[in-house]
Specification:
2 copies of one chain form a homodimer. The first copy, chain A, has about 525 residues and is of the alpha/beta class. Among the domains of chain A are: about 20-60, no CATH class; about 105-150, Helix Hairpins (Orthogonal Bundle); about 155-390, Type I PLP-dependent aspartate aminotransferase-like (Major domain) (Aspartate Aminotransferase, domain 2), CATH 3.40.640.10. Chain A contains 19 helices and 14 strands. In chain A, the strands form 4 sheets. The first copy, chain A, has a 7-stranded mixed sheet, sandwiched between helices. Chain A is globular and about 70 Å long. Chains A, B: InterPro entries: ALAT1/2-like, Aminotransferase_I/II_large, PyrdxlP-dep_Trfase, PyrdxlP-dep_Trfase_major, PyrdxlP-dep_Trfase_small.
Chain lengths: ~525, ~525
């Protein structure tokens, strides 16, 4: 039933989120109408929404889109008048931004960053009393790795050599297979790395990138901005957002039959927004598929530390492919990692890296050139990326407190995920797969026809209608499923599991009350 | 004479650096040959230099290009065997990276950054003995400005509100005209801001951007990557790299007659690589020109603190346009600022901002959307950008030491610029305009015919030939003029003024000896 609905609506879906981007073709009528109204003040401005890059216009990024603007306006209301609404504050569950919701940074990481930012501290005796011994030692090591100890200089365009050595060693330890520091490109978070790959691989809208649906909207935004074509493959909600090779094959063949040259496959593991953790066997099949079909495997592995299901384990695609005996000559694999996620959640530091393997030397040179145009990633983020891949070890002064901080955050996240998942599954018409990993739940909401009609009357997608209602009633910000893509005719939203543990019961109460009232209003 | 040579060669030049970029046209034969040779191993790789984005392939970024790769190889040689070459070390004069050559960071800035990175320090009594009172106070202010004091959270996509307030106040103080915090977009250095504007304004290679020649190669690289058309205007070397309105008009008309839609004018003031500081009257003419012609004025003002000529003063284009009575409805102006330059030279922190004024609300919304796809700039860079626009003031504990550090750096840079300029002007066949500002000298070298022939035999541009010889003989890295653009038939190189003062005499000696030998070898 779900499948046939999917097939029926797929062509519609392909015309919206997965629209083909033609630089020189006439703009489609729907888009054109909205452009006309946008530029209706027929201004004296030489730059208007009608004459900017249409790829910019088309690009959408739901996690910071309309719903967030609405939330910011409500927040301003509350600032001016704390009793303006029936809630006291806005709870941002729209984005994986742990520290904005009260998560504390890992002490050891911040100690090292402070010492590297102001290395004069390293020479002062008072420093011993303020910082852990191993943070001082680590800061010395890092400062010594920087040519001329110049922590304020541009680094090598791939990042400081010594830090890349550390990261490569960390990958080696994680995987049991060595990593090459020359394959590491340090970046300002994972997003610029994703953009770099899309820029490299996209020649025109005949170039396609296979992306999961639902997907993290960075991918659709980046593909649109670079003028490429998003080729969707659907995760199977019924099997816990399973990634089926048959679906990959079907979508690849379908795209090829339309003349699309499919360049790469994006896999997000653990899944965003879907939270599933892939089984190693499934990953082997994916590697085999990419090898056979000549696809670059773009592995978004930024949630590798966020695993909550005891029976699940993260396996990097690098480890999986190497354990199959595949090396640089067999598969092109790019793995993205970030300091923003994991137990550290250092989003604001904008640190991350990509491990780039399997490109021919001349293509790799082009990757380096594009990195060099942006000079280098920020050094604080670079240092932090090395720290997350090489945290304190047994015997280090910080080890026990570090493990306590890390363990506390991860076990609490697991509890929060479970509590929210249970609450969601208790709501009428809502089903929610388990968050085995990552930071999100992506419940399916079966909306009554009456609600769908009311949404249509407001020119809103039904899930966006639901999310706006939720926000206005409770101050809770979640993102409509339509921003991530979903099987047409189904409706979802993404909710982070990040509010602090003591806040969860109140959130559950508010959400439950809202949902009951919503259903009472719209039940068919 | 110079002008006629310019005209004669201009069409050739337009076919190389300023090549038009056609997504769907056949690749030109010269490029195609080099691609074929690059991919000659006819590899099993599904991604080759022949099937990646041709805009990536075409993009060039000289300041980190071939010459730097060569230098890095020499440095590896020296590491393996210190007597491998006739020099002991590589002196990187290729890039404006002050701290890599020994410039020390400003103490106050680093104190504040360390405290913000590890705010737990703010609560400890020992901190008083280690940090200045005003750095502690400033760090408190900043941490309090961050929602939830979450220094590790993603911020608003334009940057933290309180920091934007501080920056706007700093701009207001600098200009005598107010700035709006909502017009500030904090970015990871100025480069991503430039990319964002090129991405916004470029629909196809029929969209042109007027750029100075010589230019900082970020502009040509970014225009190429975004598929646009660089429309050159030539600075007049004979009048100290003067920017003539007649030249702007001529090039604009020429481009329009070819069907190019010119969207924007880039002005770099103080000039990079040319070091001139524009006179206020000249700037007024430029503003008038942009207003009349409906061009966005992209003002690269990252060297605003680097002024060495006592008779010169920096005026922001914002101040100039506002003093002419022009507001948001009259001119679209984007000013770029960076923490990487000035007296601070904090390149590795990747901080900066753009002040965006005059766009219609719907276009401004698109700028915001593109910023939001990248989430936010790194917080450390954001904080630093606020500090450079609001340094210690009279009466603050750090004020005197801050002024001493700043003054010491700027006066030393002025001395170094003068010493290198004099040395260059003493070389046979070399003339060098004064560096009134910025961080570079861009001497013209009149190369003997014999040298030009030798370069041709090596398939090298004559200035690149000279620079490679210089590097191999002395370890000094400078960038060939051809990477920046120059009047065809003239040859230059860019050399930073950044080696520490005590190193300058040795550099002058090495350079002079090399040049004499070179001329002896090739003199006609």
């Amino acid at each position: 039933m779900r499948k046939s609905a999917a097939d029926r609506f797929r062509h519609l879906f392909n015309r919206s989120l997965v629209a083909s981007q033609h630089r020189h073709r006439p703009i489609n009528p729907i888009l054109f109408r909205s452009l006309s109204s946008m530029a209706s003040h027929s201004s004296p401005f030489p730059v208007t929404a009608q004459n900017i890059n249409p790829q910019v216009l088309k690009c959408q990024y739901a996690v910071r889109g309309e719903i967030v603007t609405l939330a910011q306006n409500l927040q301003k209301d509350l600032l001016a008048n704390p009793s303006a609404h029936s809630f006291e504050e806005i709870i941002y569950c729209n984005i994986g931004n742990p520290q904005s919701l009260g998560q504390q940074p890992i002490t050891f990481f911040r100690e090292v960053l402070a010492l590297c930012d102001y290395p004069a501290l390293l020479d002062k005796s008072e420093t011993q009393g303020l910082f852990s011994a191993d943070s001082i030692e680590r800061a010395w090591q890092i400062v010594d790795q920087i040519p001329g100890r110049a922590t304020g200089a541009y680094s090598h365009s791939q990042g400081i050599q010594g830090l890349r050595d550390t990261i490569a060693a960390g990958i080696g330890e994680r995987d049991g297979f060595p990593a090459n520091p020359d394959d590491i490109f340090l970046t300002d978070g994972a997003s610029p790395a994703v953009h770099m790959m899309m820029q490299l691989l996209t020649r025109s809208d005949n170039d396609g990138i296979l992306c999961p649906i639902p997907q993290y909207p960075l991918y659709s935004a980046s593909i649109t901005l670079h003028g490429g074509h998003l080729v969707p493959y659907y995760l199977d909600e019924a099997t816990g957002w399973g990634l089926e090779i048959s679906e990959l094959k079907k979508q690849l063949e379908d795209a090829r039959s339309k003349g699309i040259s499919v360049r790469a496959l994006v896999v997000i593991n653990p899944g965003n927004p879907t939270g599933q953790v892939l089984a190693e066997e499934n990953q082997r099949d994916i590697v085999e598929f990419c090898k056979k079909e000549g696809l670059v495997l773009l592995a978004d592995e930024v949630y590798q530390e966020n695993i909550y299901a005891p029976e699940k384990k993260f396996h990097s695609f690098k480890k999986v492919s190497r354990s199959m005996g595949y090396g640089d000559d067999d598969i092109i694999l790019v793995s993205f990692q970030s300091v923003s996620k994991g137990y550290h959640g250092e989003c604001g530091k904008r640190g991350g890296y990509m491990e780039v393997t399997g490109f021919s030397p001349d293509v790799r040179e082009q990757v380096y050139k594009v990195a060099s145009v942006n000079l280098c990633a920020n050094i604080t983020g670079q240092i932090l990326a090395s720290l997350i891949m090489s945290p304190p070890k047994v015997g280090d002064e910080s080890y026990e407190s570090f493990m306590a901080e890390k363990g506390g955050i991860l076990s609490s996240l697991a509890k929060r995920a479970k509590a929210l998942e249970d609450a969601l599954n208790n709501l009428e018409g809502v089903t929610c797969n388990k968050a085995e990993g990552a930071m999100y739940l992506f419940p399916r909401i079966r909306l009554p026809e009456k609600a769908i009609k009311a949404a249509e009357a407001e020119k809103s997608a039904p899930d966006a209608f639901y999310c706006k209602r939720l926000l206005n009633a409770t101050g809770i910000v979640v993102v409509p499923g339509s921003g991530f893509g979903q099987v047409p005719g189904t409706w979802h939203f993404r909710c982070t599991i990040l509010p602090q543990e003591d806040r969860i019961p109140a959130i559950v109460t508010r959400l439950t009350e809202f949902h009951e009232k919503f259903m009472d209003e719209f039940r068919d």
